[in-house]
Write a structure and sequence with these properties.
Length: about 80
């Protein structure tokens, strides 16, 4: 029964919160000298960004690719 509760419960993350955290991580990355630490921070920043924006980005990429293919076939 606890598995059912875990599947039904989820945390809603707002784009405003993600934007705020990403902006702070960007500032932290700029002030970090260590390349290793910067790499970890950039990875974390990307993971946080995609919590909200991943689906929209994939759909946008698909639309852009589809438009690009249509444009190429019309040009030929």
């Amino acid at each position: 029964m606890s598995e059912e509760n875990n599947q039904e419960e989820y945390e809603e993350i707002t784009s405003e919160e993600v934007d705020r955290v990403v902006a702070r991580l960007e500032a932290l990355i700029e002030s970090t000298d260590s390349e290793n630490i910067r790499s970890y921070l950039e990875e974390a920043m990307n993971e946080i960004y995609y919590l909200v924006y991943e689906e929209g980005e994939e759909e946008l990429d698909s639309e852009v690719e589809a438009c690009g293919e249509d444009d190429l076939s019309e040009a030929a």
